[in-house]
Structures are given as structure tokens and as C-alpha cells.
């Protein structure tokens, strides 16, 4: 799969995952891999700068919590993040519909 | 590449030292999780890749990606943030204040130490920058010790008044520096913010302890006597507690506690004014001169000479520019460069200048609140809010007293008043706000979740009997 398509929509997928529940970085990569049936093998080196950038823009907030003896940094979506997610989702639907329409013309 | 080498390479790219630790900890946790997962895969026959512990760790590090690219990206995100607007505004206000005092000195019959005031402004500005560089989290870690030490220092200091005598008990000397208790006490507000933070999750016990912490400086000020400072400080502490309680920090019945608190705050002045109106100076709540001042303000007439003189100066203020005769009257007001600095400003440069200065101060206060409320670090949020509340209360009360909408009292306008203590305190408070702004991009490292478990025991019907 073309990598630019994946990276452009990465923020959308991260926001979507966190809209369901708070997660830590490794959990996000694992969930994304399972749900996409191994299509999205997100590198940690891409994920963490993206998470920190979303947090800086106040779309996410973070806190630390001890789980099974390990202190994990959980990310949580904010109100502004949910608003951003709704906008991104609408943009994505419009885009995918347009691509679908163009591809359907050739059939 | 080993895990340590990888993490070192990442953190070497991050110029802000404060951000290095938390970023490194987060990436390390990820690598260890990933390595554990590879080891688990190896344990499962058929799916395993035959990785040893060190092999799994090595692969997990490899999977992380380019450490330099990660570090560079993290460096771009985590930079200390400077609020240039506030720094420039305060610089402008400070210079405007010095120019104003220069003009007032040429009209004032009193001795004016303009060079000393300029030195206070420079020292204050440098102190503000120094505090801005400090990590304010130390306030949260040692809040009770700092609060106790601060109150002991101020209260204890009044027993050693130095060369200024015990006539007012408001000042004392340290190394020939005159310290004014009624001004320095405003530094207690951000410290109280740190106390509010440290008592989170302790229920009604916390409310009781916080009430005691607030009562000590207020009773001390009431006994001094410095009634106006006691009222403004009490108001600031109550507002700050309201912010903390509204955030559900104490798991209390918010409506009950906050409703009760604000009912008392509204009822006390009404009760005091009623008592003074009924019994005059023959009551034990206010001192004779305080009751006289209050009665003079309410009834007018003899005794309200200050109010009348302020009224005359206000009437003589031009819309823009100066009437020299009116300015001469203004500089003869007691406290013309401190309590009535706004009246002096308006008589020196016109009403528009006064309005602009007040609007600039309110804008700065709004900016302080915006920075504070946008903090993910709750300690920063509450300390910054405390500083903002002090600026707001000082500005509003100064406007009310200067426009004769309030009985005469000791007020101060941040960054414009004459005097070392007021100047330094304003800069210190703003320095704290700038420190909070500076550290807002610092990733959380040591802060733990505030989630608490609650076990509830309830009676259930005996299922066997059914």
C-alpha cells in the first residue's frame, strides 16, 4: 500500500482509536495492526512524535497510570480532539467517495 | 544498537533538557513491551521466531525506526514556550510607570526616589526572568513547608519592626530592606494554589485543613490591622478554592460547600456594614478609625475629605492631556503614587490614558488565565490561576477606590505603583505565570493519574432464602 496514503490518515486513525478508550502507545500500534489485519504496521518512531504533536495542539491529553506493576503513559482524547476527529472523518468520507466515483467511471 | 544507545541518540537531539527524561521513559517502556511480545511469540510453537531475551530487545529497538529522526521531531515539539506578548507588555507598562513617576516627581512636594524606583523595576524584571527559568513544580513538592515558612517569616517579622517603629506593624527590616507585610502577603495566593493541589482527593478533611491555612493570614491581617488586604486576600483564596473544587479535586458536595462559602462571603460585609450603621464606632468588629472611615464614605460630610478631594481631581481630569492645576491637586492626595496612582495618571495624561492602562492590565490578566486554564499540568493551572486572580482583584479594587466607588483603602496597580515591595511582588507573580507558560510543552514524567479506587459495601438480599 502507498505509504503517503497511510501517513496522511494516521492522525485520523489515532484520534478514532482514542475516541473509544484511553490507550498507551504500544496498545495503539497493536490495536491498529489487528483491526487493519496487518495492513497498518505503524512504527513507534512515527507514532510517538505524532502523539506528542497532537497533545501539543491540545487534541490529546496524557496521564500516567500503574497497570500490573508497570507505569504506562495513557493518552486521552479532548473535546477539541473529538471536534477535530469529526472534521477529519467528514473530509475522509468526502475524499474516499470522490475516489470511488472516479474509479467507478472506468468500470 | 542497544536500547541505551538508541535512547541516548534520541535524547541528544532534544535541546530542552527537561523534556529528555519523560520522552526517554516513554520510548523505553514501549521497547520493553515490544521485546516482551516478541519473546511471547517465541514461546508459542508454530508462530515463534526463536528469539532470546537479548535478540527480542535488539529487534524491538530496530523496529523503533531512526533515533535521530525521532529525536529531531521531538525537539521540534518540545520547546520552552515564551509568552513574548506578556514580556513586551510588562516592559511597556514598566517604562510608562517610570515616566509617570518622573512627571509626578516634578509636581510633588514630597521626596521622590526616582532612581531607586528605576532600580526596583530593573531588579523586578530580572527576578521575573529568573523565576520564569525555574521549574515551578518545586512549589507542589514542598507546598506545606513553603506555606508554613512563608507565613512564619511574615508574621514573625512584624515582631522585629527595625527602624520603622511599631506604629503600623506592617513593615519590618531585613538587611536594611523595608518589607511590607500587606503587599508581600499576596505571594501567599500561588502558594495556597500549591496547597490546594497537595490536598486533592482528601474529601472534607482537606476542606478543613485548607480553611485553617486560609484563616491564619486573614486573621493576622485583620489584627494588624490591614482590613482591606484581609478582604482582598480572602476573596482571592476563596476564588482559587472555587476553581479547585469545581474541578472536583476533593470529592465533596460542591454545591453545598461552595454555596455555603459564598453565602458567608456575601453575608459578612452586609452584617459588618449593618452593625456599623446601627452602633457606629461602638462595636468590636472594626476599629474606631475603620468604622469612622466607613461611615464617612456612606454618609458623606465631615471626615470624607479624601473622598471629596479625589472627586475634585477626577472632575478636573481632561479627556486627553493635562491640566497642571489639577495635577498639583492630585499629587497632594495621600498615596497619590500608590493607592491613587490611577487618579494621578488620569490627571497627568487624561482619562483615555487611564482607560488604556486598565484595559492593558485586564488583557494581561486574561492572557494569564488563558495560559493557566490551558495547562495539562494541574499544579500549573492552579498556581497560574492564583496569580491571575491577584492581578484581577488588585486592578479591579484599584479602579473602584480610585473612582470613589469604594471606601478609601490601600490599593495597588500592578507594575505602575511606586514602591519596592509592590513592584517586586508584581514581577514575581508574573514570573511564575511565565514559568508555567514556559513548561507547558514539557511531557508529563512523574505525574500520576488521579484516578482512585472506591470499594463500596452494600447489603444484598440473601439469595439462598429466595
Low-confidence stretches of chain B: 446-454
Helix content of chain B: 55-70%
Helix content of chain A: 55-70%
Shape of chain B: globular
Q: What is the general shape of chain A?
A: globular
Largest interface: A-B, 26 and 32 residues
Summed up, the helix count of chain A is 5
Number of DSSP E strands of chain A: 3
For the termini of chain B, the CA-CA separation is 67 Å
The separation of the N and C termini of chain A measures: 22 Å
Output the structural class of chain B.
mainly alpha
The helix tally of chain B amounts to: 20
**What's the multimeric state?**
heterodimer
What is the number of strand segments of chain B? 2
Placed side by side, the strands forming the largest sheet of chain B appear as 1-2
How would you describe this protein?
The complex is a heterodimer of chains A (107) and B (466). Chain A is α+β, with helices and mostly antiparallel strands. Chain A has helices at 3-8, 10-20, 25-35, 44-56, 79-105, and strands spanning 23-24, 60-67, 70-77. In chain A, strands 1-3-2 form a 3-stranded antiparallel sheet. In chain A, strand 2 (60-67) and strand 3 (70-77) form a beta hairpin. In chain A, helix 2 crosses helix 5 (79-105). Chain B is mostly helical and 466 residues long. Chain B is 67% helix and 2% strand. A two-stranded antiparallel ribbon of chain B has the order 1-2. In chain B, a hairpin with a 2-residue loop joins strand 1 (171-174) and strand 2. Residues 446-454 of chain B have low confidence and may be disordered. At the A-B interface, helix 3, helix 4, strand 2 and strand 3 of A face helix 2 and helix 4 of B.
